[in-house]
């Protein structure tokens, strides 16, 4: 018999909560997991078969780590691409492929890719310096995004008028037209090496304005089927154009006139898919494993309405994390706690999530609101 | 704030598949897990925060291990009770309590407990020697069970006539009247320290006659509600009478005239509850944690029809395990693979399980039959 998933070693770059939840699924397939992360207390530390504390952006560290695995994947985009390219050259399987990660690492290149492939997206301009910003044709206010290394709301700012430019990032950036959107939505698509593709049902996101982080996620969306289908087609088009192997999360805006505009991509399990663990027949983590091991993709249908609440560190709390209101939360039916194994909390740090599953959508949203006000990560 | 689940250390005696699935849930609560198991390759080895290779029946080993934990639980009954008693005396929480494990370890004492508490069970007689068997008033054929250390079909035999006694166990045994049963069923009940109790819906088991092991498990049962309620009441009565903290699996026979007779107890997560992971709102593993940490018990309702197939090592195969038919199995919608991380297979060894979830019961059973014939553990 050929080598199968239970014989293989999966190397994961990054040992945070995404890696942790990926390992929770990998256990079911007897998969051997290796994790590289710079944090000695990374959430994956005790779960991986092998944990290495080291830089995921350093060529030698990533290359030597990758040599130990059969298949290499990521849980964060900011990794050393050159090492992954070298590993691919030497015959290792890297999924998503290094060229996909390279493209997505740079929001400027990502936007150009959208343009070249007729993917609807907000009008944009690439700028390298504040000087170039000053000469931009874009009307205020606009959104300024650093091309590299932005995540969890970092590397993004709103430029209201010319004076703001003096405080703007002085690095290669992307100017983007402010979109008057009604809602942010996401579709996660999986594609295996055979080219089979499946999308998860479209979900709706609600943001915490202060932290610029997803606070609530509601699945499935109640937008008209036509719009949902359109979003799924866009996601599949991007996955095909990229020729990606693995998961691809596609975040989009629904504009006030019902148009869809692609905002950003993530070539991996994503915050907008956490509710799939309990809310859908297959979870995004299981699906990612199926995709990268070229196995049949699972059934993405929703089992029930699901609302996901990100559990963010409370403001003004820094230190060893405590979970206030845990018992009250657990007393509610259909509630699933996911703590990420992070010892220390800080304001807006992603410490865990909670998913509420309920046959009745209103009731799911009500429970989620109650939990949002009840469960607090303090120090 | 008082110490909470995420601050505590759970010691688990036994590091097999039940411990493994318990840890998969414990991850979600940031629970620190410590495992003691004599097998250097135990399924829990790489998942526990701390793994100790040692005997779970040796006083010193269990006692010293237990001292490192805040709460101690078991995944197998054959453990050193005296060490657990000593740990309880010194203030450690042991759930299920040592006296419950002691009672259940001995099938003779278990049967006497049923009798004393008016729990319906098959007529029985305790015998210490073959000589006593020869003088038993029980008519042939009858069932002979060793009072101690039987598991997975071991320690049980059918005595068809007097001549069989010469080959019988020569140890303290239990003679039990042969029950002409229609079906074996099980109810799992959870009880926390507050005395809150919840039962999972009754499930039906189908046995592999050759191995005397559960092959199929169907949830929920389609027996009349009255019978199901009766089974749940019996399970709750036993849990209350035992004053147990934790899970209790109650296996029963449904006789041809619709009577319920309790067969055996297991004070822990149990094979008859594996389908709860995907088939019910709360899983038996989550529920066990909730019970032993005195947290609110979860919603035990079924989400869907679920059929669980035990994945047993094929006959005539001994050696490093291979999973034939895995891809074909994964191509079916609503199928969940759970491999137990055991490197070596042998005939009838429990190597994993598969759960099929389907809104249509017939379809779930059909898929399960297909999987039973498709997915094989070979060497």
From TrEMBL, chains A, B:
Pfam families: ATP-grasp, PurK_C, RS_preATP-grasp-like. Its EC number is 6.3.4.18. Gene3D superfamilies: 3.40.50.20, ATP-grasp fold, A domain, ATP-grasp fold, B domain. Pathway: Purine metabolism; IMP biosynthesis via de novo pathway; 5-amino-1-(5-phospho-D-ribosyl)imidazole-4-carboxylate from 5-amino-1-(5-phospho-D-ribosyl)imidazole (N5-CAIR route): step 1/2. ATP binds at residues 107, 145, 176-179, 184, 263-264. One of its GO terms (cellular component) is cytosol. It catalyses: 5-amino-1-(5-phospho-beta-D-ribosyl)imidazole + hydrogencarbonate + ATP = 5-carboxyamino-1-(5-phospho-D-ribosyl)imidazole + ADP + phosphate + 2 H(+). Catalyzes the ATP-dependent conversion of 5-aminoimidazole ribonucleotide (AIR) and HCO(3)- to N5-carboxyaminoimidazole ribonucleotide (N5-CAIR). Catalyzes the ATP-dependent conversion of 5-aminoimidazole ribonucleotide (AIR) and HCO(3)(-) to N5-carboxyaminoimidazole ribonucleotide (N5-CAIR). Belongs to the PurK/PurT family. This is N5-carboxyaminoimidazole ribonucleotide synthase. It comes from Pedobacter heparinus (strain ATCC 13125 / DSM 2366 / CIP 104194 / JCM 7457 / NBRC 12017 / NCIMB 9290 / NRRL B-14731 / HIM 762-3). The gene is purK.
């Amino acid at each position: 018999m050929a080598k199968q998933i239970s014989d293989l070693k999966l190397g994961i770059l990054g040992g945070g909560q995404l890696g942790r939840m990926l390992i929770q699924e990998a256990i079911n397939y007897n998969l051997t997991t290796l994790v590289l992360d710079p944090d000695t207390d990374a959430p994956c530390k005790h779960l991986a078969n092998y944990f290495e504390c080291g830089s995921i952006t350093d060529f030698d560290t990533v290359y030597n780590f990758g040599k130990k695995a059969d298949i290499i994947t990521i849980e964060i985009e900011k990794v050393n691409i050159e090492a992954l390219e070298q590993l691919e050259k030497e015959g290792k399987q890297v999924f998503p492929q290094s060229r996909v990660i390279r493209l997505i690492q740079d929001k400027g290149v990502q936007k150009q890719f959208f343009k070249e492939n007729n993917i609807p997206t907000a009008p944009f301009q690439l700028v390298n310096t504040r000087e170039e910003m000053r000469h931009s044709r874009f009307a205020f206010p606009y959104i300024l995004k650093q091309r590299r290394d932005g995540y969890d709301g970092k590397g993004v700012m709103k430029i209201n008028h010319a004076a703001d430019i003096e405080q703007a990032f002085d690095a290669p950036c992307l100017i983007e037209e402010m979109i008057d959107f009604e809602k942010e939505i996401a579709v996660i698509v999986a594609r295996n090496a055979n080219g089979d593709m499946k999308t998860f049902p479209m979900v709706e996101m609600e943001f915490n304005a202060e932290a610029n982080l997803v606070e609530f996620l509601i699945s499935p969306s109640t937008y008209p089927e036509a719009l949902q289908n359109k979003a799924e087609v866009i996601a599949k088009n991007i996955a095909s154009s990229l020729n990606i192997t693995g998961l691809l999360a596609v975040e989009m805006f629904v504009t006030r006139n019902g148009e869809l505009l692609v905002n950003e991509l993530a070539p991996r399990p994503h915050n907008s898919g956490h509710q799939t663990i309990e809310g859908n027949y297959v979870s995004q983590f299981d699906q990612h494993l199926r995709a990268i091991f070229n196995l049949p993709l699972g059934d993405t249908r929703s089992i029930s309405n699901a609302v996901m609440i990100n559990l963010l560190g409370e403001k003004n709390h820094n230190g060893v994390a405590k979970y206030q209101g845990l018992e009250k939360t657990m007393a509610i039916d259909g509630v699933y706690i996911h703590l990420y194994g992070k010892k220390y909390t800080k304001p807006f740090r992603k410490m865990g999530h909670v998913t509420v599953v309920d046959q009745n959508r209103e009731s799911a949203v009500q429970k989620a609101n109650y939990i949002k006000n009840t469960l607090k990560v303090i120090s």
